[in-house]
C-alpha cells in the first residue's frame, strides 16, 4: 500500500440524496408517493419480520431468496439475471430506488450495491434505516407485493464484483488495499466463523475496518470527512479499495462508506471469506 502522504480523495460535495447515496427520513417521507419511486426493504434472515411491518409501499428484497443466486455454492452471491429480477419489482432505468433494512445499516447496502451492478444510478440507502423511520413516528404497514412492469436498458457493471483472483491482483499492487468488514475478533482469528467448516483468520495483507465503525452511536452513517479519514488511515492512503467480509454483505456497508467518502475505484469480493476461508480452496491465511 502507499504511504500516508498520498493524496486523500475528495469527499462527495453533497452526500445527501439525490447528489449522493444518503437518503434522509425527511426526503423519503416527502417523496414516498412519487410515481417513479420504489422502496426496497432489504432482509437477511428476518424476512417474516420485515414483511409484517415496514415502510408503506415497500417491497421485500430478501438476500436469502431471490436477491442472491440460490444455485451458487457460495452464499449471497449476485443473482444470475439481476436486471430481470429488478424489472420484476417494477424498477426501470430511470426509477428512483431507496433501500432500507431493519437494523439501520447492515443489509441495505448490499441491495444498493446490486442496484449499482445492474447499472442503475438513481439509488440510495435510507440513513438510519427502519429504526430512524420508526423513531420519527411515521406510518408503517405490511409490505406490498411487486407486480412487475420495469424495463432496464442500462449498461450492467459486473466489474463492481470480483472473485478471489481480483483480490490477489489487488494485493500485488501498491495503490490498492483489501479491506475486511468483519469484526476485529474474526479478522484476527480470535473468534470463530459463524459458518461451519471455514478457517479462522484473514486474507494476508488485508486491513480491518469493521462495518460497525461506519455508523455513529445513533445508527446514522458518519460524515464524508469522517469516513474519508477512517479509510485513508486504515489503508495507508490506498486509492483503490477491494472490500470483503463473511459472504459479501457487510462488505457493501464499507463500500457504501467509501463511495460517500469520495473513492471512485471500489469493488466488492463476492463470496468473501466463505470463499477464501474454505479449506478446499487452499488460500493463504494470516
TrEMBL record:
Listed name of the protein: Rhodanese domain-containing protein
Record-linked Gene3D superfamilies: Rhodanese-like domain (3.40.250.10)
Keyword Repeat: yes
Key words of the record: Repeat, Transferase
Entries under PANTHER family matching the protein: SULFURTRANSFERASE (PTHR11364:SF27), THIOSULFATE SULFERTANSFERASE (PTHR11364)
Stored Pfam families: Rhodanese
Chain ranges of the Rhodanese domain: 55-142, 178-282
Taxonomic lineage: Bacteria, Bacillati, Actinomycetota, Actinomycetes, Mycobacteriales
Gene Ontology MF annotations: thiosulfate-cyanide sulfurtransferase activity
UniProt-listed PROSITE patterns: RHODANESE_3
Listed InterPro entries: Rhodanese-like_dom (IPR001763), Rhodanese-like_dom_sf (IPR036873), TST/MPST-like (IPR045078)
Amino acid at each position: 500500500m502507499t504511504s500516508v502522504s498520498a493524496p486523500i480523495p475528495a469527499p462527495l460535495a453533497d452526500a445527501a440524496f439525490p447528489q449522493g447515496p444518503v437518503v434522509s427520513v425527511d426526503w423519503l417521507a416527502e417523496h414516498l408517493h412519487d410515481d417513479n419511486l420504489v422502496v426496497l426493504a432489504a432482509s437477511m434472515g428476518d424476512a417474516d419480520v420485515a414483511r409484517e411491518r415496514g415502510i408503506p409501499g415497500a417491497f421485500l428484497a430478501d438476500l436469502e431468496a431471490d436477491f442472491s443466486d440460490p444455485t451458487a455454492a457460495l452464499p449471497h452471491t449476485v443473482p444470475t439475471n439481476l436486471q430481470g429480477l429488478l424489472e420484476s419489482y417494477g424498477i426501470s432505468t430511470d426509477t428512483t430506488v431507496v433501500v432500507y433494512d431493519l437494523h439501520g445499516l447492515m443489509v441495505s447496502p448490499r441491495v444498493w450495491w446490486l442496484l449499482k451492478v445492474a447499472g442503475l444510478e438513481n439509488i440510495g440507502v435510507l440513513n438510519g434505516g427502519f429504526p430512524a423511520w420508526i423513531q420519527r413516528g411515521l406510518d408503517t404497514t405490511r409490505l406490498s407485493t411487486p407486480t412487475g412492469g420495469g424495463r432496464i436498458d442500462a449498461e450492467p457493471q459486473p466489474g463492481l464484483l470480483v472473485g478471489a483472483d481480483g483480490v490477489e491482483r489487488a494485493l500485488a499492487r501498491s495503490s490498492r488495499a483489501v479491506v475486511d468488514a468483519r469484526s476485529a475478533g474474526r479478522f484476527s482469528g480470535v473468534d470463530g466463523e459463524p459458518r461451519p467448516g471455514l478457517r479462522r483468520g484473514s486474507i494476508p495483507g488485508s486491513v480491518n475496518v469493521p462495518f460497525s465503525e461506519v455508523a455513529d452511536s445513533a445508527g446514522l452513517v458518519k460524515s464524508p470527512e469522517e469516513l474519508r479519514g477512517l479509510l485513508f488511515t486504515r489503508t495507508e492512503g490506498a486509492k483503490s479499495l477491494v472490500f470483503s467480509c463473511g459472504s459479501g454483505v457487510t462488505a457493501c456497508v464499507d463500500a457504501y462508506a467509501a463511495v460517500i467518502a469520495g473513492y471512485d475505484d471500489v469493488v466488492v469480493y463476492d463470496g468473501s471469506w466463505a470463499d477464501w476461508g474454505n479449506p478446499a480452496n487452499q488460500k493463504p491465511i494470516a
